[in-house]
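re: that chain from earlier
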Amino acid sequence: MSIVENAEVLYSQLIAELTSDAEETIYIVGSEAITINSTNNKIALSLQAAVQAIIALVIQLTIADSDKADSVRNQISSNMKWLNRKMKVIYIENSSHVTVTVSSVDIAVTLQFMLKILLSILATVDIL
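^ sequence. v structure.
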């Protein structure tokens, strides 16, 4: 499999994993006039998956031993999995005229962390 094909497969797998791990539940009980504002995170999740795929490809390209590269990539990926799990539960009971705005700052923080990892890897292999 070529590097481009490998990247496309990895990106697809990461998008599927990221979107399946994101869970948002809102319970509204005995309430009226509730407004929920939620942001669409698909673009941010796509960018996160792209950065993860780039990290994996840089590791694959810079470590000659494919078994060692797979081991390093798997270790970094498993350490990033805890960053990907997003679960929000909002419970509104006996309320009136409430507005809830749900945003995902955690995706931006995760992306910033992953970019730091990528830059560290690139600096270590003397690309930067």
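DSSP finds four helices and four strands in the chain.
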